[in-house]
């Protein structure tokens, strides 16, 4: 169990909850079986026959083919070797059993090869059979080495042993007042009911209680982080009257949107306090987050501090540097001829800079000459020292490890204020759970003058002429004076070919071929449908100078079509680019597609995004693309994305590489529980920050926050 299921203690086992419950009287739908997954089904044998076949010169072999049915569908089981007659005697037509195995495909039909099984219609009296048929069978998340019923038997032993000791050693994390106030059952009862329910009401009771445990303990951990942050000292940073910020605002050729003004007020209020700001700024693609962040940085420079902006890639750091210096004009030329009296210096720092440029940038930082620095994680290196770091802005949070954020925060004399920006909208409950230690601001208004983006799915396999039309559309955009992106999942040089290909899903041949590659597609376009246009490539393994050169020429409209990997996903801003074709769009996640699409329609001309796929119409991948094409609302898409991925990806793993602690709670569906748990947790922590009066809660917290997680939360 420890090796294959990561279950090490009796507690781990009791918190390994059934995935679902089969009623012996009601058969599980064979029609809905997922391919390549370990499943447990309850079904009836319809037919069983032994076939003889040639083993290709090594004599004859025998195989037993069993057809099982559950009313919703039929499925084939197959057994080979010496045991076929034993299985044939057991699996007589009409017998019912639980079958467990990995769903495979043979001759285009689903089958289980050599499944484990357990007969469930043994000869017994009518009474026993009736009781047996109405019983709820727990079906556990299982694996090849451990079938569901082995786990069930182990859980039964643990439950009986615990009950015999009067549940000694069981720690109930919920304070009694909260439990009674919310009408929740006690923990021993909940564990009994979730593993051995007599009725569906038992399951509902148990789930309500166990969800509360997870939500509450997690929210207490986050509430304690927030409380600890309010105890840290920080230098309040208030913008000076008539300073850099006022000079910048006076130059702006447009007014800020209401959303930008509201969010700015929230940020400026935080910056003025004497404990560090920890704020998450979520904004739709193109909602003007960079402008909000830049004004916050200028306010800090006005107040005598320095601001650092951390970008996930060199392309993006260079791009931010270009756009910030363009927006600031002479205000970014501190200490230079022609610089304004309020000006400061804006420097860029990346890993691939030449030694001289790097030395100059480091000197500007340590002397305080540079008020603003924009860089990649090169900013985090030990050599980098600041004169007085007052604000850290992290762009695209999900690309930065927590350790990196922590290292940069450690460079201030006192903890600097922190603003985290993300263009991947996060449903409210996820923000409360994953980023629960950050206050959240949302920018959901697009600036005036941004154009709508039309999105369409291009089914290349079903309708090849649609793809031909897509290239015509790109040509039309270029002839109209605009530019286009073509995005591919992979680069396509030899080094990558040798890597293991992704797991092929037999859903369709489209999945089996390697994803389309930048270098191949660019070549085909240059010699084929886009011949005569200026087609260039951009990908992560190019030399940084070459990347920057291509990006600069694309921004200057010297390149018509840029064929790129997802290096353009975040923050690349070329208002003249109006069309994007995403090849093998089914290989990208929902929020990634939304991010990519946000690169077009950034000017006054309408944007066009074409999602090319070879997936068949009824496939989940096509439905996902349909969802992206049908809405531009990032929050709606993030919800769809979350429903399609496992919760664990969103919580533990994506953030800290730690196994998700949520087994019962689902972040999307349990919004009410999470909101209520956050309120209760905040109240408990406010009254008793060290949880002195709640020893059981402390124990539960220690179990949730093993060393790794504790450090993860510590680093914020």
**Helical residues, percent:** 40-55%
List low-pLDDT spans: 496-508, 646-659
Tell me the β content.
15-25%
Task: Give average pLDDT, whole number.
Answer: 83
Quaternary structure of the protein: single chain
Largest sheet: 7 strands, parallel
Total DSSP helices: 27
Give the strand tally.
21
Give the overall silhouette.
globular
Gyration radius, to the nearest Å?
Answer: 30 Å
Structural class: alpha/beta
Strand order of the largest sheet: 11-12-10-13-14-9-15
N- to C-terminal distance:
32 Å
Describe the structure.
- The structure is a single chain.
- The protein is globular and about 95 Å long.
- It is α/β, with parallel strands linked by helices.
- The protein is built from 27 helices and 21 strands.
- It is 41% helix and 19% strand.
- The strands form four sheets. The protein has a seven-stranded parallel β-sheet with strand order 11-12-10-13-14-9-15, with helices on both faces. It has a six-stranded parallel β-sheet with strand order 16-21-20-17-19-18, with helices on both faces. A five-stranded mixed beta barrel has the order 2-3-4-6-5.
- It starts with a helix and ends with a helix.
């Amino acid at each position: 169990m420890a090796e294959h299921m990561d279950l090490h203690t009796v507690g781990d086992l009791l918190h390994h909850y059934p995935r679902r419950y089969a009623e012996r009287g009601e058969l599980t739908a064979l029609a809905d079986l997922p391919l390549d997954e370990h499943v447990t089904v309850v079904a009836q044998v319809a037919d069983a026959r032994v076939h003889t076949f040639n083993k290709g010169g090594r004599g004859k072999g025998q195989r037993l083919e069993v057809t099982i049915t559950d009313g919703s569908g039929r499925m084939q089981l197959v057994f080979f070797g010496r045991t076929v007659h034993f299985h044939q005697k057991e699996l007589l037509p009409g017998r019912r059993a639980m079958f467990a195995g990995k769903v495979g495909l043979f001759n285009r039909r689903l089958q289980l090869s050599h499944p484990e099984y357990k007969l469930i219609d043994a000869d017994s009296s009518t009474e026993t059979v009736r009781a047996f048929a109405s019983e709820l069978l727990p079906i556990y998340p299982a694996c090849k080495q451990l079938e569901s019923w082995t786990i069930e038997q182990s859980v039964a032993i643990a439950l009986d042993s615990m009950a015999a000791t009067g549940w000694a050693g069981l720690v109930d994390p919920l304070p009694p007042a909260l439990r009674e106030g919310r009408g929740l059952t006690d923990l021993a009862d909940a564990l009994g009911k979730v593993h051995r329910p007599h009725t569906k009401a038992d399951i509902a009771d148990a789930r309500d209680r166990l969800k509360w445990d997870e939500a509450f303990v997690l929210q207490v951990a986050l509430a304690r982080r927030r409380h600890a942050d309010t105890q840290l000292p920080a230098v309040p940073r208030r913008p000076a009257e008539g300073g850099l910020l006022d000079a910048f605002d006076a130059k702006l050729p447009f007014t800020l949107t209401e959303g930008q003004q509201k969010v700015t007020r929230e940020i400026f209020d935080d910056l003025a306090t004497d404990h560090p700001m920890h704020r998450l700024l979520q904004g739709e693609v193109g909602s003007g987050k960079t402008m909000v962040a830049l004004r916050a940085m200028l306010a800090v420079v006005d107040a005598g501090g320095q601001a650092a902006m951390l970008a996930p890639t060199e392309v993006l750091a260079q791009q931010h540097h270009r756009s910030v210096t363009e927006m600031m004009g002479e205000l970014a030329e501190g200490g230079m001829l022609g610089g304004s009296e309020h000006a400061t210096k804006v420097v860029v720092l990346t890993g691939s800079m030449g030694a001289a440029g790097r030395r100059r940038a480091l000197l500007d930082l340590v002397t305080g000459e540079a008020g603003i620095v924009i860089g990649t994680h090169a900013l985090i290196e030990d050599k980098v020292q600041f004169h007085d770091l007052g604000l850290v802005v992290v762009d695209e949070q999900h690309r930065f490890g927590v350790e990196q954020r922590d290292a940069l925060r450690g460079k201030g004399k006192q903890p600097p204020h922190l603003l985290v920006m993300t263009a991947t909208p996060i449903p409210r409950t996820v923000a409360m759970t994953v980023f629960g230690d950050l206050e959240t601001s949302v920018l959901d208004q697009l600036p005036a003058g941004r154009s709508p983006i039309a999105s369409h799915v291009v089914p290349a396999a079903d309708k090849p002429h649609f793809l031909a039309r897509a290239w015509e559309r790109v040509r039309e955009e270029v002839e109209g004076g605009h530019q286009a992106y073509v995005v591919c999942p992979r680069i396509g040089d030899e080094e990558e070919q040798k890597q293991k290909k992704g797991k092929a899903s037999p859903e369709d041949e489209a999945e089996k071929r390697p994803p389309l590659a930048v270098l191949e597609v660019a070549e085909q376009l240059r010699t084929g449908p886009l011949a005569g246009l200026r087609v260039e490539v951009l990908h992560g393994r190019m030399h940084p100078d070459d990347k920057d050169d291509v990006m600069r020429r694309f921004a200057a409209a010297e390149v018509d079509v840029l064929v790129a990997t997802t290096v353009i996903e975040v923050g690349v801003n070329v208002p003249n680019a109006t069309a994007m074709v995403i090849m093998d769009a089914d290989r990208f996640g929902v929020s990634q597609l939304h991010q990519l699409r946000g690169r077009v329609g950034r000017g006054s001309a309408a944007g066009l995004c074409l999602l090319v796929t070879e997936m068949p119409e009824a496939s989940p991948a096509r439905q996902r693309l349909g969802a992206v094409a049908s809405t531009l609302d990032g929050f709606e898409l993030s919800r769809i994305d979350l429903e399609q991925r496992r919760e664990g990806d969103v919580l533990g793993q994506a953030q800290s590489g730690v196994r998700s602690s949520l087994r019962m709670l689902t972040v999307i569906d349990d919004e009410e529980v999470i909101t209520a748990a956050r309120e209760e947790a905040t109240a408990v922590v406010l009254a008793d920050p060290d949880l002195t009066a709640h020893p059981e809660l402390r124990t539960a917290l220690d179990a949730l926050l093993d060393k790794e997680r504790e450090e993860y939360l510590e680093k914020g």
